[in-house]
Amino acid sequence: MQGGGRRFDPVILHSVSGRDDHQARAPVRVHILTRAGCCLCDEAIVVARQVCGELGVGLTTQDVDTDPALRAEWNDHVPVTFVDGVRHELWHLDPVRLRAALAA
Question: Radius of gyration of the chain from Cα atoms?
């Protein structure tokens, strides 16, 4: 599922561990809402790390269970990926589509 124009204001986001120094300083453009123990979330983070690392784009994540409002809105929809604050994809993150969105 793509787009929908849904905006996300990443107020409290956590850096994804394992980023190199360049990526840690890169502008954050990709945000992923996740949940502990979520296999699809783990897969989305792997894809996003690879693509963001290749393009020098910053990546952050937030566990929806740390915020009651996020859990209420996104509980059954994690992972949800945002590019530049706009919902990009739910559940499965396609690396080709992510690259295209970041190139736009």
Answer: 12
Task: Express each pLDDT in 5-35 by its tens digit.
Answer: 445 555 434 444 344 444 456 678 999 999 9
Length of the chain: 104
Domain with 62 in it: what CATH number?
Answer: 3.40.30.10
Give how many domains the chain has, as a whole number: 1
Lowest-pLDDT range of 22-26, 37-41, 68-72, 82-86: 22-26
Q: Which domain holds residue 34?
A: 14-103
Residue 5 placed within a domain: no
User: What burial class does residue 76 get, using C-beta atoms within 10 Å of its C-beta: 0-12 exposed, 13-18 middle, 19+ buried?
Assistant: exposed
What distance in Å separates the CA atoms of residue 26 and residue 24, rounded to the nearest whole number? Answer: 6
32, burial (CB in 10 Å: exposed 0-12, middle 13-18, buried 19+): buried
Inside any domain, residue 57: yes
Tokens of 9: 């204001």
